[in-house]
Amino acid sequence: MTDVKKKIEVVSYNPKWPEMFAEEAKQVWQALGNNCIAIHHIGSTSIPSLAAKPIIDILPIVRNILEVDRVAGAMARLGYEAKGEYGIAFRRYFQKGKNTRTHNVHIYEQEDPEIDRHVKFRDWLRSHDDDAKSYAQLKLKLAEQFPQNILQYCLGKDTFVAGIDAKDGTNGWRMVQALTDREWAAVRAFRLKYFFKSNVDPFTWTFDRRDHVHWVFYKNDKIVGYVHLQLWPEERAYLRIIVIDEQYRKLGYGSQLLGLCERWLHHQGYKKLMIQSSSEAYQFYLKHGYAKMPLNDPNGRYTDSRDIEIGKLLFVKF
Fold first, then answer.
1. Which of 225, 213, 222 is nearest to 253 (CA)?
2. Domain boundaries, the chain
3. Hey, how many other C-beta atoms are within 10 angstroms of the C-beta on 310?
4. What are the backbone dihedrals phi and psi of residue 131, each rounded to the nearest 5 degrees, phi first?
5. Distance (Å, whole) CA 108 – CA 94
């Protein structure tokens, strides 16, 4: 059977959207139970007079993000399909409606800075008509240009969204798997500048491998860091690359990014994080609880005798 892609439609604002949000939010709150502490209406349908795809975006805030996995059945009974993190660390994402999607649910743990980012983006467009009109025009143009390609439609909004993030007072971090053109350009630049010091990256094949994860690290609207993790068998992971852009160093971002990687791996069920540390970085890792530990690379990769094999048990409860 041929897979028919649904046409992307951007329609005029529907004054019933807030009511539709409120009705659905009650059911989602019930499904999440006592873990849920608040729910926000976000996205274009939350902005009066803004043209939008007729899909309601809902942002519940929970006490414990891991508990959300236990209520996937309750969400399924409401018609939602669980999508996991869907590229954003520490999120749980659900879609309702399959080919005729009606709702998206983006769940975050309390104090996750993504909450503030979504709310401030919404509030900025609610109070700045010129930006709201520009956003509507952009979406209409993208829907016409990519009528059946939702990925290109979303990627086309990246620069505009980053521009709003830069001026709406957003003040937090984001750790996302590289997706947009801007993010992949940053990944390539980090790798060539700090690791290969040439115009040739011999490991671009890892960009398409599911056992290799490429994270970009944002501070506000700026990409300031990058991580390349390789997922090994036996609940082990290998930190192939971690780097903060030199203009943002000595601000604590390296420690923060390492801690977020450890937390993410712990959430995925990994028990050890292995590293080949240079002698210059060794003291940094010692400060963060790493100790000498044989790498035992299952792929038999060549190791540099000048590097120090270290690791850490990820048993700490985050």
1. 225
2. 17-171, 174-313
3. 21
4. -65, -40
5. 12
Q: By the 8 A CB rule, do 212 and 228 touch?
A: yes
Report whether pLDDT(3) > 60.
no
Span 270-298, average pLDDT? 96
Give me the CATH code for the 17-171 domain, please: 3.30.460.10
Would you state the structure tokens that stand for residue 7, as one six-digit string? Answer: 């046409």
How many C-beta atoms lie closer than 10 Å to residue 100's C-beta?
Answer: 9
Which structure tokens are listed for 295?
């790498």
- Each residue's pLDDT tens digit, 34-57: 999 999 999 999 999 999 999 999
The torsion angle over the Cα atoms of residues 106, 108, 111 and 114, rounded to 10 degrees, is -40
Q: Tell me: pLDDT of 302 over 80.
A: no
Q: Where are the alpha helices (DSSP H) in 166-252?
A: 181-191
pTM of the model: 0.94
CA nearest to 102, candidates 143, 53, 149, 41: 53
Query: Is the CATH number 3.40.630.30 carried by domain 174-313?
Result: yes
The angle formed by the CA atoms of residues 138, 139 and 144, to the nearest 5 degrees, is 100
Residue with tokens 């309750």, as numbered in its chain: 74
In this predicted model, what pLDDT tens digit does every residue of 116-143 receive, in sequence order? 999 999 999 999 999 999 999 999 999 9
CA atoms of 178 and 275, how far apart (whole Å): 22
Q: Pseudo-torsion of CA 85, 89, 91, 96, nearest 10°?
A: -30
Q: Which of 128, 124, 160 is nearest to 141 (CA)?
A: 160
Per-residue model confidence as pLDDT tens digits over 226-261: 999 999 999 999 999 999 999 999 999 999 999 999
